[in-house]
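Project outcomes to date are best conveyed with an example. Our students and postdoctoral researchers have been running inverse folding experiments weekly, and each run begins with a structure described purely in tokens. The record below, which covers 143 residues, was selected by the lab manager from last quarter's runs and is presented without edits.
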């Protein structure tokens, strides 16, 4: 199986021009990326070489490429007001004190909701199953 490799990598200004492309075997392609990584230290070449040698799988390649692309960038929520972690929200809610009026209003609002189908007693159902001659106690549990 042959791979197409950029002689001058795209991340170093190379193009898709046919004069910049070469056909390599998988092993040669991996070796070319290792050489580029050793010479220039670009993480994308290391990731490509490890992927070609099956050292890392597709998901790990994706994770590492995304991680590399985000290096040096400020997280979207850094310094933003009103953006809280789930832990912070839980802590804030645990300190909340509800008035009787608020409790009553919530109770009224939720009436009639969450009326799902009631689950049958599993022990009773299991007792009635045909073809099972497994000993059970008086509660229907296996002995």
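After processing, the design step wrote out the following sequence:
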């Amino acid at each position: 199986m042959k791979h197409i490799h950029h002689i001058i990598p795209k991340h170093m200004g190379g193009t898709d021009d046919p004069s910049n492309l070469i056909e390599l075997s998988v092993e040669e392609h991996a070796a070319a990326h290792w050489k580029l990584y050793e010479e220039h230290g670009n993480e994308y070449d290391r990731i490509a070489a490890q992927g070609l040698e099956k050292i890392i799988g597709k998901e790990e390649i994706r994770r590492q490429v995304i991680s590399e692309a985000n290096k040096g960038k400020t997280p979207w929520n850094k310094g933003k007001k009103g953006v809280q972690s789930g832990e912070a929200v839980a802590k804030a809610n645990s300190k909340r004190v509800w008035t009787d009026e608020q409790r009553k209003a919530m109770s009224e609002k939720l009436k009639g909701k969450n009326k799902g189908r009631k689950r049958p007693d599993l022990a009773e159902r299991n007792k009635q199953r045909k073809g099972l001659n497994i000993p059970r106690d008086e509660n229907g549990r296996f002995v």
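The first helix runs from residue 26 to 40. The first strand starts at residue 2 and ends at 6. The training component of this project remains on track.
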